[in-house]
């Protein structure tokens, strides 16, 4: 049986082993291997009520659609990317009788001129997007309204916004200037004197 030793060489050696054998205090249940969110970080009361509703639906209906909605309600803002009206119209072509569902924001797009009458459920609509959808004869629904109309997700089209269209993502990847790199450089300005010389133009040595 190991005991904490004295000041002799064997005693110091036993002392080191004794410290090595000491554990760390874990909360009952051991180490947490699950890192996914189990609740939203936001303090938005309406979001919390929506989560409460979909927790109930997941428990009572066993519906995969409801489980996906609940999971996406927990996500961070970056992972709840917005979807423009033009993308929405494109995805819903030929599916006008169904309800589009997006856990995120629907934004306006001036490049689309004609909008069909479509029913859309989203966490949020920008003012102009809502006005244009309703003017075209469509409907802007909330998730509690969707739960009444389609408790199992029947006749719905589940959509997601483009997560990697953020400005920050354009700078990710191999360093700017490296062969075959398409990463956007962090520059003060886009003028002639800012990262426009060797490697950027044929007239200045070479062009990548």
Automatic annotation (TrEMBL):
Region Disordered, annotated ranges: 172-208
GO biological process: translation
Limits of the Large ribosomal subunit protein uL15/eL18 domain: 23-208
GO cellular component, one term: cytosolic large ribosomal subunit
GO MF entries: mRNA binding; structural constituent of ribosome
Keywords for the protein's UniProt record, in alphabetical order: Ribonucleoprotein, Ribosomal protein
InterPro entries (UniProt xref): Ribosomal_eL18, Ribosomal_uL15/eL18, Ribosomal_uL15/eL18_sf
Family classification: Belongs to the eukaryotic ribosomal protein eL18 family.
PANTHER family registered for this protein in UniProt: 60S RIBOSOMAL PROTEIN L18, LARGE RIBOSOMAL SUBUNIT PROTEIN EL18X-RELATED
Protein's name in the database: Large ribosomal subunit protein uL15/eL18 domain-containing protein
Gene source species: Brassica cretica (Mustard)
Organism ancestry: Eukaryota, Viridiplantae, Streptophyta, Embryophyta, Tracheophyta
